[in-house]
Structure formats: structure tokens, C-alpha cells
Amino acid sequence: MGRHARLAIASLELVVGIVLIMRAGALLSLDRPVPAPSFAQSLETAGKPAHQADAAIRIKQLQEPARRIAESLIAPPPVDASEIERVEARPPLGDLGLAVRPKTPMPKDWRETRLYSPIATSSATFVSMGWKVAISGAQDIDVDQTCSFRDEAWPCGQRARAAFNAWLRGRALNCFLPPETERFAIAAPCRLGKQDVGAWLVANGWAKALPGGIYGKAEAVARDAGMGVFGPPR
């Protein structure tokens, strides 16, 4: 048998095999059970072409609610509200979690006033635009006061005033003050931008906190760190 005859027979066998495979697939698809439509679906699809009827049945099946399976294993168990016990909240992990102490309310006629070119007269007082203001909550360090560090005395009062003056130079403070017609020496809260002036003075050791005031913790930190008047000569 020649080469060309063998190739022809092989090609014929391949074609026959493909035809047999396709025929077997068709027979298997005919044996597959097709779910019968319900009576309601039969009424809805009566008189419609076959493809439209199949599409209507599939849409109807998709719209039906899903069956509930193993509800006792998936759904959360019922809870009796009378058995729920409320407990107190745990204490904060540290002081940073505590709420900020509310500020002392200011009189209604006091307004935040911008004071330009303030000049420090001591570590927690300054003058500006005819006002003499003491920073509320901060205890002044007298200009003539001396401090001792490791048996070495130094003029901490003058140094504290100089530090406050250097911080204020060329700036403006916003302070809560009474009406301008009542100018006199007064204790008032002030800020430089967003910085609380009293907090800055006490935290850096250039003023002390008034007893029971809001800067007590800031003074404790300054003492432990040896800042300002609590440290060596500066």
C-alpha cells in the first residue's frame, strides 16, 4: 500500500472518530432530565416561542426567594436581653487618655483682642497697647529671684524674663480682655497663634503653675527634665 493511500485511510478514520464523539455527546444531552415547569409557569409561557418561554422560566426562578439551609447552624442564637450585664468602662491606660480640663468661662463682655509688640516685664507678665497683662494660670518668677543648682546660684528671674521677651519679640498675642474703657492690670488667657502662652511658659520652666490650676502637670514635667528655673544656669 502506498504512502498516499495510508494517509487517506488515516484521515478517514480521524473524521469518523470525530463524528462518533459528536454523536455520543448529542445522545448524552438527550438523556439529561429537564425540570418540568410549574403550572403557573406553563400558563405564563403559553403561546410564546420556545426561546422566550425558556427565558421567562429562568427569570421566574431567579426571582424566587432562596431556600433556608441549616438555619440552626448559621443564624446567631437568640439572646435574652434580661441576661445582658453592663459593666463599668475600664480606666484609661494613661493620663493622655483623660479629657482636657474645661477652661474657666470668661465674662460675656470680654472679647479676644490682638495685642501687638508685647514686652515682657517679668516671666509671666507683659505690657502692650496700654494693657498690663498677667498670664492666667501661671505664677510669675520675680525678676530679682535667684535659683540654686548644685550649690551654684544664678539670676533665674532675669533669665526667665529674657526668655519670655525673646519668644514675644516681633509677634502679636490674642488675649481675652474686658472692654477697652476698663484698661487696668489684669490676668487673662493668651495665645500665640495656636500656642497657649501659659502652657509654653510653664512647660519650659520659665513660670510656675498656680496651685490647683491647669498647668500642674506641665510644671511636673519641667521639674523632672530640669527645664528653665529648675535646671542649671542658662
Briefly say what this structure is.
With 234 residues, the chain is of the alpha+beta class.
Radius of gyration: 45 Å
Instruction: Tell me what the CATH architecture of the domain at 111-230 is.
Output: Beta Barrel
Q: Give the CATH class of the domain at 111-230.
A: Mainly Beta
The number of distinct helices, counting runs of at least 4 residues, comes to 7
Average pLDDT taken over every residue: 77
Distance between the termini: 116 Å
C-alpha geometry: elongated
Structure classification: alpha+beta
Q: What's the helix-strand series?
A: HHHHEEEEEEEHEEEEHEH
Number of strands: 12
Taking pLDDT < 50 over at least 5 consecutive residues as the criterion, the unreliable ranges are: 94-102
Strand residue content:
15-25%
How is the main sheet built? 4 strands, antiparallel
Residues in helices, as a percent range: 25-40%
- Order of neighbouring strands in the sheet with most strands: 1-8-10-11
CATH fold-level topology of the domain at 111-230: OB fold (Dihydrolipoamide Acetyltransferase, E2P)
Task: Please characterize this protein's 3D structure.
By secondary structure, this protein is an alpha+beta fold. It has a domain at 111-230: OB fold (Dihydrolipoamide Acetyltransferase, E2P). Helices cover 36% and strands 18% of the residues. The chain is built from 7 helices and 12 strands. The strands form 4 sheets. Strands 1-8-10-11 form a 4-stranded antiparallel sheet. A 4-stranded mixed sheet has the order 2-3-4-9. Strands 5-12 form a two-stranded antiparallel ribbon. Strand 10 (190-192) and strand 11 form a beta hairpin. The protein is elongated and about 125 Å long. Mean pLDDT is 77; it is low at 94-102.
